[in-house]
Recover the amino acids of this structure.
């Protein structure tokens, strides 16, 4: 039995009194243990496999023993995949890495010989990592040469930034990599086309103080706004009125060229004039319409 002194406020507004509280060691020993997250427990736990299990499997080759051994080493796959996922983009799912790592585990299990005196974990980890990397390379649509060039440009950029104290120019990067400026431009174009962004990624915009998905920041520059549609409708209505100020020959050329989609040569055959004459009429008509439009919208601006 252990006696501890604690100050407990008995009533509000009074000074706390010293009260002796008895705490038994048995009570302290029965406190609940610290809760460890399930995922951390699964990853950090070691497989409970003895050399006797391997010997029995090598002797009998029973499916039950094989399944027991593989299940015992699944946390090893999760551990390797979780460590590798830290260096990959967010688009790479941990579940996919684990599934691919299991394939590497099975291959390592089939080729492992316990008589060599090497632990299975030591033998399996490089095979699991190799299987994951091979799968990622197979899924990568960018050529390896482009990836290698990208790493060279990154290393050269970091070196020049530390040396110059500023962002390097194209000619400085080209000199560092011992290539011409034209080749440097081509390399940057190839590398920039390999960048992939996730539209579901949460980002901080410059003019926002909250996180939003990237897809909310994407705008269609070619999409017509309501104001743009109104202006476009006004322009069309005015062009109908402006067409009345053209001569009959100019109206015919505009109609055949823009509405019937005839070439200047075909319009000349229809009107029985030369192609150069059609071009002159077309240029004069467009110039008149452009002048009328500028005059109209300059007055209403």
């Amino acid at each position: 039995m252990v006696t501890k002194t604690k100050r407990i406020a008995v009533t509000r507004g009074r000074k706390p009194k010293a009260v002796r509280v008895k705490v038994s060691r048995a009570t302290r020993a029965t406190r609940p243990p610290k809760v460890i997250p399930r995922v951390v427990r699964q990853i950090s736990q070691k497989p409970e496999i003895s050399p006797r299990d391997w010997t029995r499997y090598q002797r009998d080759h029973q499916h039950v023993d094989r399944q027991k051994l593989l299940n015992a080493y699944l946390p090893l796959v999760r551990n390797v995949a979780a460590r590798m996922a830290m260096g990959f983009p967010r688009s790479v799912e941990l579940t996919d890495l684990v599934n691919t790592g299991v394939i590497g585990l099975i291959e390592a299990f089939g080729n492992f010989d316990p008589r060599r005196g090497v632990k299975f974990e030591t033998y399996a980890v490089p095979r699991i990592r190799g299987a994951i990397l091979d799968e990622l390379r197979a899924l990568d649509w960018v050529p390896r040469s482009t990836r290698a060039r990208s790493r060279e440009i990154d290393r050269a950029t970091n070196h020049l930034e530390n040396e110059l104290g500023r962002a390097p120019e194209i000619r400085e990067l080209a000199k560092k990599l011992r290539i011409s400026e034209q080749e440097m431009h081509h390399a940057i174009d190839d590398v920039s086309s390999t960048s992939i962004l996730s539209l579901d990624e949460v980002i901080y915009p410059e003019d926002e103080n909250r996180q939003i998905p990237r897809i909310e920041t994407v705008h269609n520059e070619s999409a017509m706004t309501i104001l743009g549609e109104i202006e476009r409708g006004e322009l069309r209505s005015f062009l109908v009125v402006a067409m009345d100020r053209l001569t009959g020959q100019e109206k015919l050329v505009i109609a055949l060229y823009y509405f019937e989609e005839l070439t200047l040569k075909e319009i000349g055959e229809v009107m029985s004039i030369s192609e150069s004459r059609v071009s002159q009429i077309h240029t004069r008509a467009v110039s008149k319409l452009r002048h009328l439009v500028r005059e109209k919208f300059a007055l209403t601006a």
In short: Strands lie at 2-8, 17-23, 202-203, 212-213. The first helix runs from residue 25 to 29. The radius of gyration is 38 Å.
